[in-house]
Prior knowledge:
Blueprint: H1 2-22, E1 28-35, E2 41-50, E3 53-58, E4 61-65, E5 67-71, E6 74-78, E7 85-91, E8 94-101, E9 106-114, E10 133-139, E11 148-157, E12 160-167, E13 170-171, E14 175-180, E15 183-189, E16 194-202, E17 205-212, E18 216-224, E19 249-251, E20 257-259, E21 269-275, H2 280-296, E22 301-308, H3 314-328, E23 334-338, H4 344-350, E24 362-366, E25 372-377, H5 386-403
Parallel strand pairs: 21-22, 22-23
Antiparallel strand pairs: 1-2, 1-9, 2-3, 3-4, 5-6, 6-7, 7-8, 8-9, 10-11, 10-18, 11-12, 12-13, 12-14, 14-15, 15-16, 16-17, 17-18, 19-20, 21-24, 24-25
Amino acid sequence: MKYSIAFIVVFLMLLSCDSREGNKLKLGFWRAELRVSPDEVLPFVFEVTSQESIKIFNADEVILVNDISYSKDTIVFKAPVFEGYVKAIINGEDLEGDFIKESLDRVVPFSAEYGNRERFASKYNQTNQDLTGNWEVVFSPDSEADMYIAKGIFKQEGAKVKGTFRTTTGDYRYLEGVMDGDIMKLSTFDGAHAFLFTAEIEGDTMNGMFYSGNHWVEPFVGKRNETYELPDANNLTYLKDGYEVLEFTFPDSEGDMVSLSDDQFKNKVVVVQIMGTWCPNCLDESKYYSEYYNMTSNEDLEFVALAFEYAKTKEKAFQSIKRLKDNIGISYPILLAQYGTSDKVKAQEKLPMLNHVLSYPTTIFIDKKGQVRKIHTGFNGPATGEKHTEFKREFEIFMDSLLIE
């Protein structure tokens, strides 16, 4: 009898193990969809390389996800740095769940199927247009309040398209998609933002819609213009009349109040970064600034970041800051300038000497005498190609000139 009981116990244990294994993701490629409207889905592709590792693909970008947990038939995974996470039920070769950003109370329906790595399914099975080149673009062209300009930069090979939209406040990072008949379809998902662009292309014109998750949608129009350039990013934000210096006092993670007048910044070149841990452009910029700061190791140089966080509590905001610093290896201080909202009007109230806070990120360059020498709005990230290289070159030349003064 005791042998029968032992056999049953072992059998149940093995069955339990098999059940647990069956609730893990299958290794290989998956095609995911985010439902951004009743009629549109935003697709992206990821690869499960192990039960502890997922790779998300956007054009030339590969995002390594190691923050993964399983509970019965449910998986939760979160991209590095950002707050948003996917929570889904595993049903064999299918996933059903949501992409969730708790601080913003946003939930986007999520699904995925195993064994499919085709980002966009072809509807017309032919390519009638070539998107390659530069495009002069206007978003929300019929709304004075919401209208803004952009530059589309695309490269098409066959039906495959890669590129991005640059704006005065930054770029839309790595977009990937297809030209299907006369229809352009581009998407990206990085764990913070979920962007879908669709447009009808007719010769040298485009007419489309932009979806940001399921909370924002706006039209855009464009025309091919190989010589088009955006306004100079160094002239958009400036000190208002009556102000000569930048001043602020904000807490660090230890609760100590930090000001530009502190000894650590005196008689030094100071780079002040206005940013948020939720902002993909800020992540791209922070990676570059951190690398530059750690490699330069100049006693006459200091960086300090001012974080404007939408986290609902101070504690959660500092947790996000710590996560960013740990993931990238940032060794310069990040101060908490604001939490509970990332509203730019509120941010400008914290820095009243600026004409406005137009963009996250914004960089303020201060010389050894404490004078503001330049303010750069936005950041041209690696998805912008030559513009990213140009930004780094100009940044390093300008920094060298300030440091030798």
